[in-house]
Amino acid sequence: MSSKTLISFTAVGLIAGLVFGIYLLDVKNTNQLVFVEGPSISIVTEKFDFKKGEEIKIRIINSGTVPLTFPDSSYGLRITGLSGILMYSPKPIHESDFQSYSLSPKEEIEFVWDQIKNDGDSIHEGLYKIHSKGLNPDSHKIEKSTTITIWK
Description:
The chain is an alpha+beta fold. It has one helix at 3-27, and strands at residues 41-45, 49-51, 56-62, 68-70, 78-81, 86-88, 101-103, 108-113, 126-135, 141-151. A five-stranded mixed beta sheet has the order 2-10-9-5-6, with no helix packed on it. It starts with a helix and ends with a strand.
């Protein structure tokens, strides 16, 4: 093998490793709960890697200093594949058209997901994003997501 080929393969390997590392830093964000001044929402799971079929406890926490409101009892929770295809969202309970759901600062709500999709099928192994979306007092959207892995 010539030295030019060796240098080319080494350069491609280094660039690919760098790009993949940056991607994993973004996908595997381990900093789940940070309290900040102003509006903020956090999604916390007890770990990042789960066995297939294991229940996943998801805590949605108001990690800011202002109350957040949500349109229904699902608190904006959505679980998607990395491509953005919706896998699961809790069925909201609409008890009254006048009732709103809110979280005061440092208040939280917990959901448990049994890894069953909305269509009743079990999910496959892979990476999934957990999203939550609410509104601050000025009606601006506040969103957060975290990534988990389901293993066999």
